[in-house]
Design a protein that fits this description.
alpha/beta; Rossmann fold; Helicase, Ruva Protein, domain 3; two-stranded antiparallel sheet; 13 strands; about 45% helix; globular
């Protein structure tokens, strides 16, 4: 494919993404960064962990995306008494012929909302995260492929700790992005108040076909990432592991464990997806910066000293981005 054809293809996909954004905007006010993260994950084929206090439209954003895409959607409200079979499914005994029949769980969908994932015990979390990684589920002796696309959007409340089970670092690493959902601005909150206190509500319609969704993911392969941008990604990940080598001696005692190789892969995929969202057939260092916080914030383990000084992973990433030379 030559440059002209690639540019045309990216333009077409940009129009598709624009339709999705516009439709989600009928219900979701503000939260542009959250919408960007969801679309980047959709295009890149990754999963998203959304963290924020209740009432910030995390669930609304995910439901709106599912409706705009016209894809199958399931929601699981995670609770301490949930079992792995409640997620992936189980075998049901058929008394008529004495056989066991598979009953597939809610994980067999396109978009899965794992609501308050940190409320479920370790076995349930592990069952879901294995499905996320393998994109297949074994029930009895039979393995079933999950539908395509398959996107897990998990939420967790950062404040409430009673009755919760923190996700282990190895499992959190399977999320492409961790998106922090913050309070809306005053203007956005005024629009929310004016829009949702009336009886008239906007209904979201499917504005793309399953073929167009598949084309979005295929178009990502054509987005070019220059070798210098790739080196920039490697430099950023290296700085999380050996900060002293990048003149970040003050972070050497703050970082207990740096980013995994998955961070490198998702930075590369995320940067190209960010470029596609902005209608460009090539990724830039700015695209890397756009996704760096979401990709790295849950992959950097801070030391006790850093936590005692209230140093956050976002602050560490920000310092790395400000220090590592941009090509």
């Amino acid at each position: 494919m030559n440059a002209a054809e690639l540019g045309k293809q990216v333009e077409v996909q940009g129009e598709v993404l624009g339709r999705i954004r516009q439709e989600i905007g009928k219900v979701l006010v503000g939260q542009e960064k959250l919408v960007d993260d969801l679309l980047i994950a959709l295009v890149g084929g990754g999963h998203v962990l959304l963290e924020g206090v209740p009432g910030l439209a995390k669930t609304t954003a995910i439901q709106s995306l599912a409706k705009a895409l016209g894809l199958r959607f399931q929601r699981i409200s995670f609770t301490p008494d949930l079992l792995p079979s409640d997620v992936i499914g189980t075998l049901i005994y058929n008394q008529k012929d004495g056989s066991f029949e598979p009953r597939k769980g809610p994980v067999f969908t396109n978009l899965l909302l794992a609501d308050e994932i940190n409320r479920a015990p370790a076995k349930v979390q592990s069952a879901l995260l294995e499905a996320m990684q393998e994109r297949r589920v074994t029930i009895g002796d039979t393995t079933y492929d999950l539908p395509s696309p398959f996107l897990v959007l998990a939420t967790q409340n950062p404040i409430e700790q009673k009755g919760t089970y923190a996700l282990p670092e190895a499992q959190v690493d399977r999320f492409m992005l961790k998106s922090i959902v913050t309070y809306p601005s005053r203007d956005d909150e005024r629009r929310i108040m004016n829009r949702f206190t009336s009886r008239t509500r906007s209904e979201i319609q499917a504005v793309v076909t399953p073929e167009e969704v598949a084309a979005l993911q295929t178009a990502l392969d054509g987005v070019y990432c220059d070798e210098k941008v790739g080196e920039y990604i490697l430099d950023i990940v290296s700085a999380t592991r050996n900060p002293a080598s990048w003149h970040l001696e003050d972070l050497a005692g703050a970082i207990e464990m740096g980013a995994s190789p998955r961070a490198t892969l998702w930075l590369h995929v995320g940067a190209r997806a960010s470029a596609l969202l902005r209608g460009r057939p090539f990724a830039t260092p700015q695209d890397v910066k756009e996704v760096a916080r979401g990709v790295l914030r849950h992959r950097i383990m801070l030391s006790y000293e850093a936590e005692a000084e209230n140093l956050t992973a976002d602050a560490v990433v920000e310092k790395i981005l400000n220090t590592v030379p941009v090509p």
